[in-house]
Specification:
By secondary structure, this protein is of the alpha+beta class. It is built from 2 helices and 6 strands; from the N terminus they run H-E-E-E-E-E-H-E. It has one domain. Strand 4 and strand 5 form a beta hairpin.
């Protein structure tokens, strides 16, 4: 499994506001909404990393938690005003549909997650 870029964790540590995608693989209207990052937790699991974001809505002060599961890779792109990160997550439903026979009878428990057809892409943009 790929290690998480230290710049990503550093960006989260100093982050005041961020925008994030809730639906994978294409930009949505929610990506223009600013959220205050209250705290975050990043854990390594058997099938990838788990990123838990504790957020606050800047308009309503409502607090909520959003997670990205089974992160395989995080790719960063930055400029002078923000850091943009693409988060590649394993889509378990697609993966399990394709490999359920192998997973159920134990013939191949180490099927690679590297195949991009099983990966969903999300975006997080962190203001500097």
């Amino acid at each position: 499994m790929n290690k998480i870029d230290s710049f990503f964790e550093s960006s989260l540590s100093t982050c005041k506001t961020l925008q994030l995608s809730l639906i994978p693989n294409f930009p949505g209207i929610e990506e223009t909404e600013n959220h205050k990052l209250v705290s975050y937790n990043l854990k390594e699991t058997v099938s990838g990393y788990l990123l838990e974001l504790n957020l606050e809505n800047l308009e309503t002060n409502e607090r909520y938690t959003f997670t990205y599961n089974d992160i395989q890779k995080i790719e960063g792109h930055g400029n002078s005003t923000y850091h943009k990160y693409y988060i590649y997550c394993l889509n378990r439903r697609l993966y399990n549909d394709k490999h359920s026979d192998k997973l159920l009878d134990g013939r191949s428990l180490s099927v690679s997650y590297e195949d991009n057809s099983y990966v969903d892409t999300y975006r997080i943009m962190i203001s500097k």
